[in-house]
Amino acid sequence: MDVRPAVSNIESQRMTTDELRRTFLVDSLFQDGSLQSLYWETDRAVIGSSVPLRQPLLLETAPELASEFFCERRELGILNLGGTGSVEVDGTAFCLARLDALYVGRGSRKVVFASERADAPARFYLVSYPAHADFPTKLIPYADARTVHLGTPQDANERTIFQYIHEEGAQSCQLVMGFTRLETGSVWNTMPPHTHLRRSEVYLYFDVPDEAAVFHFMGSPQETRHLLLHPWQAVLSPAWSIHSGCGTQAYSFVWAMGGENQRFTDMDGIAVRELR
Question: Which of 44, 72, 151, 251 is at 20 to 30 A from 189, Cα to Cα?
Answer without folding.
Answer: 44
